[in-house]
Automatic annotation (TrEMBL):
Localization of this protein: Cytoplasm
Described purpose of this protein according to its UniProt entry: Non-essential, abundant cell division factor that is required for proper Z-ring formation. It is recruited early to the divisome by direct interaction with FtsZ, stimulating Z-ring assembly and thereby promoting cell division earlier in the cell cycle. Its recruitment to the Z-ring requires functional FtsA or ZipA.
Family, as annotated: Belongs to the ZapB family.
The organism's place on the tree of life at top rank: Bacteria
Location, primary (coarse class): cytoplasm
Single GO cellular component term: cytoplasm
Coiled coil regions in record: 6-68
Any single GO BP term: FtsZ-dependent cytokinesis
UniProt entry tagged with the keyword Cytoplasm: yes
Alphabetical UniProt keywords: Cell cycle, Cell division, Coiled coil, Cytoplasm, Septation
Gene name linked to the record: zapB
Subunit: Homodimer. The ends of the coiled-coil dimer bind to each other, forming polymers. Interacts with FtsZ.
Protein name: Cell division protein ZapB
Organism, scientific name: Candidatus Pantoea soli
Record bears the keyword Zinc-finger: no
Amino acid sequence: MSFEVFEKLEAKVQQAIDTITLLQMEIEELKEQNNTLKNEVSQASGNHEALARENQHLKEEQHVWQERLRALLGKMEEV
């Protein structure tokens, strides 16, 4: 009878080992995915900053052109 109990215990231990192994593999996969996502977020953040700078530059350029256009329109009205 104790041999049967030992076999059941051994089976449960083996099942626990298998489960732990699978969970460790899953953890490694999730760590890799996490690192990949961190890199993507970092790149997206850099892209966002670059786009924000470009947007600001274009707004300033638009403002300059608007001022030039207003000046030209003002001169035309004077004529």
